[in-house]
TrEMBL record:
Gene3D superfamilies: Aldolase class I. Pfam families: Glu_synthase. The chain crosses the membrane at residues 7-31. Keywords: Membrane, Transmembrane, Transmembrane helix. It comes from Fictibacillus fluitans. The lineage of its organism: Bacteria, Bacillati, Bacillota, Bacilli, Bacillales. Residues 124-496 form the Glutamate synthase domain. InterPro entries: Aldolase_TIM, GltB, Glu_synthdom, YerD. This is FMN-binding glutamate synthase family protein. Belongs to the glutamate synthase family.
Length: 534
């Protein structure tokens, strides 16, 4: 009896403690919030204020996973995110019961022909096969998902030699031949962690026919891990091609140009809306990154918003010529279109002098793997579907379009978006965030904090442990090959035998009233408006 009594007393004490601790903690928070002077809502309503701040904190996650429908959410909707994940994990783009696109909204559409190309009529090179791994679902229940990864041989879906895109074909000692239209946009080591960069390098190499842009942060061993082809990006900070004083080093540049894996160089004048220059928080600048970039470890990096080496079309293009002569490899520039007068001045000088970059990468203002200020991200720089046709048309007007390849970049993460960009004038397409999603990005939008929860945009070793290179490399490969498959499907529907043959005539724009306008008509109207303004 005494034992039972003791147990009851002990139980009551435990219950009392369990009740007392939260009550004491609640009273403490109430008094603390009531006395603080920083937050008005907490001072007037300590309890409701806490609930408000808690809800506000988890709001982005609630919207992403519960409240937004599949076509909502920025910068990418849930549907767009899932399209990438499915392509990378399952190499699958099939949908059931119809499209989720809102056909009442305005947008671009691809013109299909009455007599599409048969698969046997497509000019595609499917050798050699790629050995990859693809997930197969065995069950998908509410509380569990059963799936297995299995090895599979897949077609690489390369362009044929006759349709391959060649950078620097008539200008360089070492031109760069590409049998695929899609590559990885600039993402620096430091902005992304070593596991993410390594997985991307190996996955791209596995897929072949592509390239990896280093970003402005210099070349690391992780970029070289898969032995994929490299476009070395040179930003205003000159990371990797400068001396200890921060000045451009021709010796360092020559050393880089002699590396077989580096196939071309790109001068980054601007990136997305990052006219401010590159930015990496100090806590992401490890000893290794500092050594690659020739900067001080642990110190925040803010590179200049433009090069000191040139400040006009003439000095820019002279620098391009010098780089090409020294390296013997294609040299391009990366721009964001804004000031059309300045753009035309550049193109006019290209025509007058005969000095042209081998390629121009056009980054839409909607681009954004890196950190930038809100006012720049939201307003500076034209989006890719406006910028790309402008540059294409301007080069044609000056008769030099055949001398310069155009690479388009800006949220082009699915085959249809890429096909529209090709029809608007792009020769090649860059992707950044699509590849980030393929290696595990969940769009947490904390890229600039070094706290990426999935180990992609972080140098934190503990967080990077979640990103397994040997697994994610296959997803990168599958995603890229899936994009190429989709492009050939769209080409066949449009009645052409290769996606390299997309032209303006293959797309139309439908407005909210259902009216359809060819792209040439839209460009003509825009050009007429510009002339009237001048």
């Amino acid at each position: 009896m005494n034992v039972l009594f003791d147990l009851v007393i002990a139980l009551l004490i435990i219950i009392g403690i369990l009740l007392l601790v939260p009550i004491v903690f609640f009273i403490y928070l109430y008094i603390k919030d009531d006395r603080q002077k920083q937050h008005s809502i907490l001072r007037n309503f300590p309890v409701l204020g806490k609930v408000r701040y808690f809800t506000e904190k988890i709001g982005p996650e609630l919207r992403q996973y519960l409240y937004n429908n599949d076509n909502e959410g920025k910068p990418f909707s849930r549907k767009e995110f899932q399209d990438v994940v499915k392509s990378g994990k399952y190499k699958d783009r099939l949908v059931g019961f119809g499209s989720q696109r809102d056909f009442g909204e305005e947008g671009y559409f691809i013109r299909n022909t009455l007599f599409p190309k048969l698969r046997t009529e497509l000019k595609v090179d499917n050798e050699p096969k790629i050995r990859t791994r693809i997930y197969v679902e065995e069950g998908d229940n509410l509380f569990s998902r059963k799936e297995r990864s299995e090895e599979k041989l897949i077609n690489p879906v390369y362009l044929t030699d006759e349709n391959a895109v060649i950078l620097g074909e008539h200008t360089c000692r070492h031109p760069f031949k590409l049998k695929g239209l899609i590559g990885q946009s600039g993402m620096s080591y430091g902005a992304l962690g070593e596991n993410a960069i390594s997985a991307l390098s190996k996955g791209l190499a596995m897929a072949g026919g592509t390239w990896m842009n280093t970003g402005e942060g210099g070349l690391s061993e992780h970029h070289l891990a898969g032995k994929t082809d490299i476009i070395f990006q040179i930003g205003p900070g000159l990371f990797g091609v400068r001396n200890l004083d921060g000045e451009f080093s021709w010796e360092a540049f020559k050393q880089k140009s002699e590396m077989e894996q580096i196939k071309a160089f790109e001068l980054k004048l601007a990136q997305g809306a990052k006219t401010r220059g590159g930015h990496v928080e100090g806590e992401k600048v490890t000893e290794e990154i500092a050594k690659i970039r020739l900067v001080e470890p642990g110190k925040t990096i803010n590179s200049p918003n433009r090069f000191k080496e040139f400040d006009s079309p003439a000095t820019l293009l002279h620098f391009v010529e010098e780089l090409r002569n020294v390296s013997g490899k294609p040299i391009g520039i990366k721009i964001v279109v804004g000031d059309l007068d300045a753009l035309e001045e550049l193109v006019a000088y290209m025509k007058e002098s005969g000095e042209c970059p081998d390629f121009i990468t056009i980054d839409g203002g909607e681009g954004g793997t890196g950190a930038t200020f809100q006012e720049l991200a939201d307003t500076v720089g034209l989006p890719i579907q406006s910028a790309l046709p402008i540059v294409d048309e301007m080069l044609k007007e000056y008769g030099i379009r055949n001398r310069v390849k155009l690479i388009a970049s800006g949220r082009l993460i699915t085959p249809d978006k890429i096909a529209i960009a090709l029809a608007m004038g792009a020769d090649l397409v860059n992707l950044a965030r699509g590849f980030m999603i393929s290696v595990g990005c969940i769009m947490a939008q904390v890229c600039h904090t070094n706290n990426c929860p999935v180990g992609v945009a972080t140098t934190n070793k503990k967080l990077q442990d979640g990103l397994i290179v040997e697994e994610k490399q296959y997803r990168v490969c599958n995603y890229l090959v899936s994009l190429r498959e989709g492009l050939f499907n769209l080409a066949a529907a449009a009645g052409i035998d290769s996606p390299t043959k997309f032209e303006r005539k293959h797309i139309v724009h439908k407005d909210k009233l259902g009216r359809v306008f060819p792209l040439d008509e839209i460009l003509h109207a825009a050009k007429k408006t510009q002339h009237q303004e001048h």
